[in-house]
Amino acid sequence: MKLKKIAMTVLSGALALTVLGGCGSGESSSEKTADTSSAAEIESKGADESVESVKDKFNVKLLGRTYYSDGTLWLGLSGTGMDFDFTGDKLTINMVGNPAGEDSQPRCALYVDGERVDDQMIQTEGSRFEVTGKGSEPVNVKVIKLSECAQSCMGIVSMDAGGGTITPAADKKHRIEIIGDSITCGYGVDDEVKEHHFATGTEDCTKSYSYKTAQLLDADYSLVSFSGYGIISGYSNNGKKVENQLVPTYYEKLGYTFNMGFGTEKPENLDWDFSKFTPEVIVINLGTNDASYAKTKAKKQEYHDGYVDFLKQIRAKNPDAKIYCTLGIMDRNLNKTMISAAEDYSKETGDTNVATFEFPMQNMAEDGIAADWHPSDATHTKEAALLADFIKQDMGW
């Protein structure tokens, strides 16, 4: 894919050099979920249609926090999509992208039996994937949105199975949610020039430690990640707090975008229904952007307190999940503070279902570097192996 170099004013603070972080559902639609929301609540959420409606039109397993409305399955956050088995000769998947600049179009990939067979920037006027089947022998098909939500949303409008059949893929053995920033999004991983900046065309969450960790754990996943975002501050290039780029603000939503959203809806105005995906494990990898602001003792304490509050927020929505607090791939300045926050949270609440894990810093000389000094594919692969091994041992998987 042709690499694209841009300088986006909106993201300039989140995309500067070394400590930058520009850093930045396995829900099966074959399972009916009871909807106990009142009419008023449904209206306030944008009237997300029932799981049965999704089943009737697509009959797939959903990946990540998707949104179905007026016959279109909307994808915002990194890694969202669908997973299903197709039996037949030819399948056509019709998609639409939201109006955006050339370097902010949604990027999406098609996988057949685990192999990537197509990779497109989804056009406003419409794009399509075509799958060549094996007749009576089923093939597994995955549609995965590679770029993140803030710059690019897209919709799956229809699928034509040509007389064939579509059935949801089987659930994986485990379920994991990963919360993070640009590292989790796979920012710039397809651009090996460190001086280059953000472009959706060089972002690929499937090459991030996040997706790779889920694969190693045989886990259905949900990624909640935003480049440049933090817990108390987004990336700051002047030492001032960036209060409008906070992951806790959008953790309970379907995302955030400053471009067009899900048709007439904005993902930041839509509540996520946590009953749709119940992770066994939650990984938090946040602090790289906060570190650009939290340089003094008082500001580090602010990060500590904000981290404790975020753990409480996550626990309220996920009462049974094991939470892993991680940090360190691009910057280690807040590692000790992160560990202290996790320990103090457990002391205060009595919740001991929390652990900490420190990633080793990326080795640029050995493993290379990506756009805006972000981790390379090789770095992501190494970090994923370490994290997955740690979780396996701790969880007894």
Describe this structure in words.
With 397 residues, this protein is an alpha+beta fold. The protein has 2 domains: 9-25 and 173-395, SGNH hydrolase (Rossmann fold); 28-168, Sandwich (Jelly Rolls). The protein is 22% helix and 26% strand. The chain contains 9 helices and 15 strands. The chain has helices spanning 39-44, 51-57, 182-185, 209-216, 247-250, 297-317, 335-349, 364-367, 377-395, and strands at residues 27-28, 61-63, 67-69, 72-75, 81-97, 107-112, 115-121, 127-145, 154-160, 165-168, 174-180, 219-225, 281-285, 322-327, 354-358. The strands form 2 sheets. Strands 1, 2, 3, 4, 5, 6, 7, 8, 9 and 10 form a 10-stranded antiparallel β-sheet that branches. The chain has a 5-stranded parallel β-sheet with strand order 12-11-13-14-15, with helices on both faces. A hairpin with a 2-residue loop joins strand 3 (67-69) and strand 4 (72-75). The longest helix is centred in the C-terminal third of the chain and has 21 residues, at 297-317. It is globular and about 65 Å long. The protein starts with 26 loop residues before the first strand and ends with a helix. The model is unreliable at 1-47 (pLDDT under 50).
